[in-house]
Amino acid sequence: MMPPSRLAGTLIPAMAFLSCLRPESWEPCVEVVPNSTYQCVDLNLYKIPDNIPSSTKNLDLSFNPLKRLGSHSFSNFTELKVLDLSRCEIHMIEDDAYQGLNHLSTLVLTGNPIQSLASGAFSGLSSLQRLVVVEINLASLENFPIGHLKTLKELNVAHNLIHSFKLPKYFSNLPILEHLDLSKNRIQNIYHKDLKVLHEMPLLNLSLDLSLNPIDFIQPGAFKEIKLHALTLRSNFNSTNVMKICIQGLAGLEVHRLVLGEFKNERKVEDFEKSSLEGLCNLIIKEFRLAFLDTSQDNIIDLFNCLANVSAISLVSLNFDRLEGIPKNFRWESLELVNCQLKKFPTLEHISLKRFIFTANKGGDTFAELHLPNLEILDLSRNGLSFKGCCSYADLKTAKLKHLDLSFNGIISMSSNFLGLEQLEYLDFRHSTLKQSSDFPVFLSLNNLIYLDISYTHTRVVFHGIFDGLFNLQILKMAGNSFQDNFLPNIFTKLTNLTFLDLSECLLEQVSQGAFDSLPRLQILNMSHNNLLSLDIRPYKHLYSLQVLDCSFNRIVASNVQEPQHLPRSLALLNLTENNIACACEHQSFLQWVKDQRQLLVEVEQMVCLTPLDMKDMPVLAFRNATCHMSKTIISVSVLSVLVVSVVVALVYKFYFHLMLLAGCKKYGRGESIYDAFVIYSSQDEDWVRNELVKNLEEGVPPFHLCLHYRDFIPGVAIAANIIQEGFHKSRKVIVVVSQHFIQSRWCIFEYEIAQTWQFLSSRSGIIFIVLQKVEKSLLRQQVELYRLLSRNTYLEWEDNVLWRPIFWRRLRKALLDGKARSPEGKVDSENSQYEATTST
Ligand SMILES: *[C@@H]1O[C@H](CO)[C@@H](O)[C@H](O)[C@H]1NC(C)=O
Ligand SMILES: *[C@@H]1O[C@H](CO)[C@@H](O)[C@H](O)[C@H]1NC(C)=O
Ligand SMILES: *[C@@H]1O[C@H](CO)[C@@H](O)[C@H](O)[C@H]1NC(C)=O
Ligand SMILES: *[C@@H]1O[C@H](CO)[C@@H](O)[C@H](O)[C@H]1NC(C)=O
Ligand SMILES: *[C@@H]1O[C@H](CO)[C@@H](O)[C@H](O)[C@H]1NC(C)=O
Ligand SMILES: *[C@@H]1O[C@H](CO)[C@@H](O)[C@H](O)[C@H]1NC(C)=O
Ligand SMILES: *[C@@H]1O[C@H](CO)[C@@H](O)[C@H](O)[C@H]1NC(C)=O
Ligand SMILES: *[C@@H]1O[C@H](CO)[C@@H](O)[C@H](O)[C@H]1NC(C)=O
Ligand SMILES: *[C@@H]1O[C@H](CO)[C@@H](O)[C@H](O)[C@H]1NC(C)=O
């Protein structure tokens, strides 16, 4: 045994430690709307944290151990409108706990084990409309201190321990009370005196829920002359007989809506039969609803003999075999059958019925004829029904139908184009399988249709006139269908009033340029989940009212149009997320556009690149066009240099000799000429050159020194080099002997071209032409340059004529003398030439 002192010594620090474990939580409340809405759920708080601003309007403090609400607990939060204190372990609420909350409209106190509730607990709540005090151990309404809450509209005291239905006197102070929820209490008996306050001060629009109270007895006449908006009695009676008697006790009640039945997991009434509802003949009811009952009726219609004057009937989750033969005197306008189990589709024939809702029922696979001439709304959705023919007056026998919902059914064969159903405004086929819907203009007569949904109907659009006739249509949903060749053709030309178009999941690869040209009012266009490869703006440019364009979940790589700015001006949202954006330089103008249009694009920060590999999964916004400029420059520079180099090479190749000439000019310069003239001639004319030219010029007075290749060229050196180095560089003038042979010889022409360059480079007028024979003009013309020169310049013409010769030689000598330096160079020249002549001969 441990001595007490030692025990205390270990326990006290341990307790201190444990108490430290439960300090005020430092985890902050969730700020849903700054300065206005805060959620502090389950934060181990024992008071309101200091960091909640006093301007807060909505405060959720549920699941915190507040334990006790002292007076003025919330006086620092005078703006509060909604205060949730569910399951805060509150056992005591003192006077004036909510004092100061003059704007509070909703107070939730669910799940607090309140033991002590001061009489002034709710004082000050001058605007409270909704008080939820579910599961607070309330045993009676009698002393509940809410008599002053004049603004109260809803009082929820469900799930408490209340035995008595007696509505206390203070209810007469709650003039606008509309909802009183007393469900799941312990009320067994209802007496006339309990409703005294309602007899004295009627609450005309009160909805009363008494479900899940074990009611055995309702005093007949208790509800006499009482008017209620709604009365709900579900799972109240533990036998058919009790139910029958209690319903009879309701006699005299006038209620807009009566709900009877049970809950899915709370079923006690068995053998529900015709007489069970007999008592309803003494009530005035507008709408009647029956839920979760197992009826043993063959034809359920027999139950409703006392409900002939009801305008709306709703049957939810019932089992029955048949529903047919609605008596003629029934004034039902609306009939709703939801989630019922029946043997076959009800064949209805009734004149007053305007609304027939038959959804999510089982059994009855095939639609049978209806005979409802005043029907306006028909909802047959979610039944797995199949329709052998659809749709025309012949099938429904009503010409007033405005709303037809056949969604989530089986196969529907479109056999007629709604003949006689011209009033239709709303038509829904989604997730049913339509047959033959694209063979002819099915909707041709639906000129009043505003809403059409054929999404996921396995429709393959082949016929372009499919939507003809729908010129009032505003909403068209056709997601999950397909088109021929996955190409969207011009099928909307008649739909000028369209504002919403859903083409998602249609396997579209291409869109016709004019597909949307006639839709000036379209506001929302959904192209998501298709296979579009590029953002082609052109089809959208006439959508003058377009606000939202959803192109997400496609395979868009980029925009193929240079200027995506041609999007409609009205566009506010463009969704390009989940595409295959290529962040490559070739698309840089598109990528720049993406950056510029941040406001327009949805979740632009989350858009990622797919290609190229090094950009994969990077944000599109991270693309930098600078890298493109760089590589562009590099590419252009290298292309340019390759070009320059090749041009240079080509030029060098072509003008190699000319360049040699140039180099020579530099080297030799002026005044170093050894020869008076370099003679260019064809070898065929060599005789003339030797016998006439050389003789006359070199042996005449003064003697000229000619450069002749047969004599003066240095052996062993390339001819071309000789021509340039010996011929041109060392000669003052060039004599060109033009003849037929000359023109025909490529070698001569080459020599001549070099001669021209030489003349240009040495800037001398040094070429002397001698035309040996009359050259044929046509031949000469082939050598354009030569021809031009000959026709522009004077040239010497050789004629074998004794009279002419002296003139010829004189002119030639004169031409050769032109520019020749006088003596002493002349001497040198002549000496040289002498020397040359002797050596060479
Ligand atoms: C919240 O209130 C504080 C003080 O009243 C004020 O300074 C602040 O601007 C408010 N914040 C917002 C988002 O209204
Ligand atoms: C109200 O606020 C004042 C000053 O901010 C503070 O001293 C006081 O404790 C608060 N009252 C309550 C009940 O929180
Ligand atoms: C009566 O209350 C219901 C809701 O319970 C409401 O829809 C209806 O408008 C109210 N009628 C009047 C006349 O206030
Ligand atoms: C019906 O309720 C009464 C009292 O609430 C009870 O005594 C009786 O056993 C119940 N009957 C059935 C069939 O549950
Ligand atoms: C329905 O109303 C008619 C006339 O208003 C009345 O004669 C008939 O008894 C009523 N039927 C029922 C079942 O309340
Ligand atoms: C289209 O809508 C406008 C306004 O909503 C309406 O006035 C017009 O009648 C509709 N039909 C056609 C064919 O324009
Ligand atoms: C377009 O359709 C897809 C599904 O098919 C949907 O998720 C998306 O929200 C739609 N977009 C718009 C703008 O309605
Ligand atoms: C594309 O963005 C729009 C606007 O935010 C949104 O309504 C739509 O749901 C988005 N599309 C998809 C497929 O999520
Ligand atoms: C490249 O980016 C700069 C700035 O981000 C921008 O001004 C320029 O227009 C862009 N160039 C191209 C070709 O998109």
UniProtKB/TrEMBL annotation:
Residues 1-16 form the signal peptide. Residues 673-816 form the TIR domain. This is Toll-like receptor 4. Keywords: Cell membrane, Cell projection, Endosome, Glycoprotein, Immunity, Inflammatory response, Innate immunity, Leucine-rich repeat, Membrane, Receptor, Repeat, Signal, Transmembrane, Transmembrane helix, Ubl conjugation. The gene is TLR4. InterPro entries: Cys-rich_flank_reg_C, Leu-rich_rpt, Leu-rich_rpt_typical-subtyp, LRR_dom_sf, TIR_dom, Toll-like_receptor, Toll_tir_struct_dom_sf. It comes from Galeopterus variegatus (Malayan flying lemur). It comes from the Eukaryota. The keyword Cytoplasm does not apply. It holds the Pfam family TIR. The chain crosses the membrane at residues 634-657. It is a single-pass type I membrane protein. Residues 831-841 have a biased composition (Polar residues). It is found in: Cell membrane; Cell projection, Ruffle; Early endosome. PANTHER family: TOLL-LIKE RECEPTOR (PTHR24365), TOLL-LIKE RECEPTOR 4 (PTHR24365:SF521). Residues 822-841 are annotated as: Disordered. Belongs to the Toll-like receptor family. SUPFAM superfamilies: L domain-like, Toll/Interleukin receptor TIR domain.
